[in-house]
Amino acid sequence: MKKILLNILAVILGLFIGGFVNMSIINISGSIIPPPNGIDITTEEGLKAAIPLFEPKHFLFPFLAHAIGTLVGAFITALIAKTYRKILALVIGLAFLIGGIMMVFMVPSPTWFTLTDLILAYIPMAFLGYSFAFKLKK
Predict the structure, then answer these.
(1) How far apart are CA 86 and CA 89, in angstroms?
(2) Which of 29, 85, 124, 126 lies in the 20 to 30 Å Cα band around 63?
(3) How far, CA to CA in Å, does 9 sit from each of 6, 73, 124, 126, 138?
(4) Whether 78 contacts 24, CB under 8 Å
(5) Measured between alpha carbons, how far apart are the two ends of the chain, in Å?
(6) Would the CA dihedral through 18, 20, 25, 26 be positive or negative?
(7) Residue extents of the structural domains in the chain
(8) Counting Cβ atoms within 10 Å, is residue 111 exposed (0-12), middle (13-18) or buried (19+)?
(9) Which of the four pLDDT bands, split at 50, 70 and 90, describes residue 120?
(10) Is-contact 117 96, C-beta < 8 A?
(11) Tens digit of pLDDT for each residue in 59-108?
């Protein structure tokens, strides 16, 4: 019973911490790579209006936020979990992937970014997070 509770806690913490990392990176992105002049990206409507004006550099931090958030969340989960570490880390990747797919429908983006993000930022990063935790736990 204790293992099950720790596994549940690991997933909850992985989702929370990974989401926090994701949002932190998104929040600082505008100060590092400013959006086009006169654009408000703090609202969904403003972001939708801004997407056609974005250059490839504006997509760097969203990708990093998704990838690093997933990596950290999966790492934390695999580090804390007592059993099924790889599966639970991949559950984190799947949860973040579902969020990424939802964002594609809410805020359309260029096809190249959508494919790059959905293919590279979630499941591979979850596996990498698991791998880092596995090596650390050895």
Answers:
(1) 5
(2) 85
(3) 5, 12, 23, 17, 21
(4) no
(5) 24
(6) positive
(7) 2-137
(8) exposed
(9) very high
(10) no
(11) 999 999 999 999 999 999 999 999 999 999 999 999 999 999 999 999 88
* Residue 117 identity: D
Q: How far apart are CA 50 and CA 56, in angstroms?
A: 13
User: Tokens 């994701």 identify what position?
Assistant: 22
8 Å CB contact between 71 and 125: yes
DSSP code per residue over the chain: -HHHHHHHHHHHHHHHHHHHHHHHHHHHHHHHSPPSTT---SSHHHHHHHGGG--GGGGHHHHHHHHHHHHHHHHHHHHH-SS-HHHHHHHHHHHHHHHHHHHHHHS---HHHHHHHHHHSSHHHHHHHHHHHHHHH-
- Amino acid at residue number 86: K
